[in-house]
């Protein structure tokens, strides 16, 4: 239970007030939208992205933690659109880099740079570092907010290793560099169903699905 969460009972009651409307995903990242929509299948709730609300401004992610950023996005968008909103903040935590890129994962190579640039910077910083010292984890915090101010957060992590050369065509972000030892494949080499079952975001969303399932029963 997060410090931002009163309790799950309160948000379940609040969700029931707004459940006739679609849940809004507080992101315009197409890869993330696609993954979240897959993960939320079967909840009984329709899901739309911020593309359906083009006038909602980008939320400045200036928090020091994944949780702070996720909660800020969920709260601000929920108020702006008047609907249940789901936001996540996630990133890559590399032990050798003292936790970087962390909350700066999406902007690691600079505000205007893309996944390719971020991956290249990561590889440059780890150049010559042996595999056993390239341990890392993906971390995700999901925040679910309602327009009347209720917020719940859930968390998920996935352990892995940063490899030396990108592999795979699926996924987005750092997926081509993140090797899951149990599968000996990167996130980008896994099919979507396998990735969703073990990923940081998938694990956090399973808890959200339980909240939504309870709300749908009321």
UniProtKB/TrEMBL annotation:
<feature type="binding site">
    <location>
        <begin position="172"/>
        <end position="175"/>
    </location>
    <ligand>
        <name>substrate</name>
    </ligand>
</feature>
<dbReference type="GO" id="GO:0000166">
    <property type="term" value="F:nucleotide binding"/>
</dbReference>
<keyword id="KW-0546">Nucleotide metabolism</keyword>
<dbReference type="InterPro" id="IPR020922">
    <property type="entry name" value="dITP/XTP_pyrophosphatase"/>
</dbReference>
<dbReference type="GO" id="GO:0035870">
    <property type="term" value="F:dITP diphosphatase activity"/>
</dbReference>
<protein>
    <recommendedName>
        <fullName>dITP/XTP pyrophosphatase</fullName>
        <ecNumber>3.6.1.66</ecNumber>
    </recommendedName>
</protein>
<dbReference type="GO" id="GO:0046872">
    <property type="term" value="F:metal ion binding"/>
</dbReference>
<dbReference type="InterPro" id="IPR002637">
    <property type="entry name" value="RdgB/HAM1"/>
</dbReference>
<keyword id="KW-0547">Nucleotide-binding</keyword>
<feature type="active site" description="Proton acceptor">
    <location>
        <position position="89"/>
    </location>
</feature>
<feature type="binding site">
    <location>
        <position position="89"/>
    </location>
    <ligand>
        <name>Mg(2+)</name>
    </ligand>
</feature>
<feature type="binding site">
    <location>
        <begin position="27"/>
        <end position="32"/>
    </location>
    <ligand>
        <name>substrate</name>
    </ligand>
</feature>
<dbReference type="GO" id="GO:0017111">
    <property type="term" value="F:ribonucleoside triphosphate phosphatase activity"/>
</dbReference>
<comment type="function">
    <text>Pyrophosphatase that catalyzes the hydrolysis of nucleoside triphosphates to their monophosphate derivatives, with a high preference for the non-canonical purine nucleotides XTP (xanthosine triphosphate), dITP (deoxyinosine triphosphate) and ITP. Seems to function as a house-cleaning enzyme that removes non-canonical purine nucleotides from the nucleotide pool, thus preventing their incorporation into DNA/RNA and avoiding chromosomal lesions.</text>
</comment>
<dbReference type="GO" id="GO:0005829">
    <property type="term" value="C:cytosol"/>
</dbReference>
<dbReference type="GO" id="GO:0036220">
    <property type="term" value="F:ITP diphosphatase activity"/>
</dbReference>
<comment type="similarity">
    <text>Belongs to the HAM1 NTPase family.</text>
</comment>
<keyword id="KW-0378">Hydrolase</keyword>
<dbReference type="InterPro" id="IPR029001">
    <property type="entry name" value="ITPase-like_fam"/>
</dbReference>
<dbReference type="GO" id="GO:0036222">
    <property type="term" value="F:XTP diphosphatase activity"/>
</dbReference>
<feature type="binding site">
    <location>
        <position position="90"/>
    </location>
    <ligand>
        <name>substrate</name>
    </ligand>
</feature>
<feature type="binding site">
    <location>
        <begin position="200"/>
        <end position="201"/>
    </location>
    <ligand>
        <name>substrate</name>
    </ligand>
</feature>
<dbReference type="GO" id="GO:0009146">
    <property type="term" value="P:purine nucleoside triphosphate catabolic process"/>
</dbReference>
<dbReference type="GO" id="GO:0009117">
    <property type="term" value="P:nucleotide metabolic process"/>
</dbReference>
<keyword id="KW-0479">Metal-binding</keyword>
<feature type="binding site">
    <location>
        <position position="195"/>
    </location>
    <ligand>
        <name>substrate</name>
    </ligand>
</feature>
<keyword id="KW-0460">Magnesium</keyword>
<comment type="subunit">
    <text>Homodimer.</text>
</comment>
<dbReference type="Pfam" id="PF01725">
    <property type="entry name" value="Ham1p_like"/>
</dbReference>
